[in-house]
Each structure stands twice: as structure tokens, then as C-alpha cells.
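Input.
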Amino acid sequence: MHLTKERRCRSVYRRKCVALLSVLFLLLTTVVSCKDQPSDDKTVTDHIIRQYLTALCEYDIKTMNQNSLSVIESYGDSKEINASCKVLAARISWQIEGISINGNAAIAQITLVRPQNFEVICTDALGDAMRQIEQNTERTPAQMLGASIKSRAEKTDAVQISVEIPMSKVADKWMIGKTHTIDGIISEIRTPTAAVYALIGQ
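Output.
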């Protein structure tokens, strides 16, 4: 009688172990499968928009173009021009107000705070640099102009604007659509910056 009870206990123990292992296996399989599942459209579009706007504020045109259907021209400017463009772009801040998705199309509502007039910053900075050049300082004209642009950018008035950034899902991949406002900001930064450096022979 004692042996029968012992066998029964062992049998019950084995069944419990098998059941427990089955549950653990099921849980592990579920966790792995969840990790393997692609992120939903909301997460993907949010990530791409954040990456795009961060690149805008860093004047990183290459990164902006990575997930964009409309390629922004890369001008091949000098390191001095690019450095000043980065200084100006760094004065931009942004906030995502919302992303609405409808099938394979999406719209991101963005609030941007940006310098009111990049051209005024550059022309005023050129005037500052020219006065310093006349005083025969030891720095090069490009160094003086770069420092003046940075100083002017830090003091400039800012303006808040609302921007809609369209997105499209192409071949199961979300891409940024053409945004005239963002393209315009890049041009507003680069054009006067390149112009003032050209005037001092850089």
C-alpha cells in the first residue's frame, strides 16, 4: 500500500512538472514572438519624424534624406559655411502635436520655434565681422564671421509656426513626403550664410 501511494505521488509530481514546463515554454515563446513582431505604424512614424526633425536642427541633410521621398540638395559647402549653418539650425526647436494615420498615408502636426529671419542674422554678422577685420585682429575673416553669426543667432527673435509633414507608406516602409516649409527653412539657412562667406572670400 505504501509503494502505491509513493508511485501516485511521483506520478502527480511528474504531471505538475510537465504542466509547469509547458506553461514556461508557452510564455517564453510568446515573449520572443512579441519581440519579433514589427512595430506598429504609430511607433514607426513617430520615430521617423523625430529622427527627421532632430537632423533638421543639426543641419544634417544626409540624415534628413534617408527616409524622405523628396531629396534636399547637398551643396558641398566649405566646413566654415556648414559650421555656421549648424549654428543657425541649432536655434530651431520642435514639438510633435500629433500624428494622424489613414491607411498608407499620414500627417504629422508639428510646432516649430525658429529664428524670425536668418538673412538678417547673416547680414548683421557680416557687418560686425567687417568692422573687426578693419581693426586688424589676429583671427581670420572666416573665424570672425563665424563668431559673429553665432553671437547674432543667440540674440535673435524667434517665431512659432505650425507645420504639417506628410508621410507615405511605400513598399511597406514609411517615408517623409515633400514639405515646402522644411525645404524652405534649409534654403533660408544656407543661402544667406553662403553669400556672406563669399563676400569675405571664403
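The longest strand covers residues 158-170.
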